[in-house]
Amino acid sequence: MSALHFGTRTLPYGVVSPSGGRPRVGVAVDDVVLDLAHLFGPSSEFAAASLNPFMAAGPARWAEVRDAVRARVDQGVESGQAGVHAAGAVSVLMPFEVADFVDFFSGIEHATNAGRILRPDEEEPLKPNYRRLPVGYHGRAGTVVPSDVDVVRPAGQIRQGDEVIEAPTRRLDVEVELGYVVGVPSEHGRPVPSDRFHDHVFGVVLLLDWSARDIQAWEYQPLGPFLGKSFATSISSWVVPLDAVDGAWVDGPQQEPAVLDYLRVDEPRNPSIWLELELEGHVVSRPVAGSLYWSPAQQMAHMTRNGASLRTGDLYGTGTISSFEVEGQGSLLELSWGGSREFSLGGGAVRSFLEDGDRVVLRGWIGGDRSRPMGEIAARIRPAL
Ligand code: MN
């Protein structure tokens, strides 16, 4: 793979395979990968093809390892040293085994924009439950893929006037999100309070929620998203531990009406992650994650309020991170206002939805600080089969 450009502050975890070697856990430092199976030994939890054993170990182990990694990085990490791989000399693999995948709808700007686009006749764009609970749905864990995996245009049932046809989607969209990754499982039957967030959640990734709007529009009532979403979800290949977003947490919008007790949080709710969505080499949007209405701690508390358990490798998406300003809108549904207008890619090219061959890239920076990158997702759209 090519350059990583991670600097020395984020120190994210991933799974790499050196040429001819077995997969192992590594940390991205600048443009090299520090091999934790070398640093901690071949019998450690890092001699594994996923982060799951390390993520399950819990906060004390996470802190101990991060201290050891920092100490090693402070000594200087360079390609050619034992246990250090050049980025170009490794394959970067899926970082963890996804257990369950849930996607929320916690961007109030996106929910409002989508309500106005899809239900223009209704006065109130938000449903009555929106400010009461973090709305979400269960997605498909088995089709979560890392960066650099192409997305094949899905086909399915589409309503066309009075007809229903089987055809490739004509409204292929993507939603800009963050995804939170669970490390420590919880007991089935026992809700997890919002203040236990840091005891269970290991880290955060960038997430692209691919969406076929025409398939979704026909199928979603009354049970919610299904095949219009389940064909693919992309995540960044490097998992950023929550430690790395320290100091970047901000208060979201005021929650009114007051939330029920189990959804109360005392601390600032969301990390301020500045994002950049690029399409065919042109930045089309710059959403910022700090304004999400529901926080990851509230989402976790809600997801387990009925006694559903957390499992190591659970992934939950924030929902589309968006804005009322076009510069920060995190889906093509919004940028094209339901397909009613085209937006520019520069050089005369325009889009409403994604075309075959399009290359989509999402990048992010913690607190907007270019020395604290979140990594990236890159994916290309392939024609329908
Ligand atoms: Mn989504």
From TrEMBL:
Pathway: Amino-acid degradation; L-phenylalanine degradation; acetoacetate and fumarate from L-phenylalanine: step 6/6. Its EC number is 3.7.1.2. Mg(2+) binds at residues 209, 229, 233. Keywords: Calcium, Hydrolase, Magnesium, Metal-binding, Phenylalanine catabolism, Tyrosine catabolism. SUPFAM superfamilies: FAH, Fumarylacetoacetate hydrolase, FAH, N-terminal domain. The keyword Metal-binding applies. Substrate binds at residues 105, 119, 216, 220, 320. Its cofactor is Ca(2+); Mg(2+). Ca(2+) binds at residues 103, 175, 177, 209. GO terms for biological process: homogentisate catabolic process; L-phenylalanine catabolic process; L-tyrosine catabolic process. Coiled coil: none annotated. Pfam families: FAA_hydrolase (PF01557), FAA_hydrolase_N (PF09298). It comes from the Bacteria. Residues 109-364 form the Fumarylacetoacetase-like C-terminal domain. InterPro entries: Fumarylacetoacetase (IPR005959), Fumarylacetoacetase-like_C (IPR011234), Fumarylacetoacetase_C_sf (IPR036663), Fumarylacetoacetase_N (IPR015377), Fumarylacetoacetase_N_sf (IPR036462). The active site is at residue 110. Residues 11-74 form the Fumarylacetoacetase N-terminal domain. This is fumarylacetoacetase. It comes from uncultured Nocardioides sp.
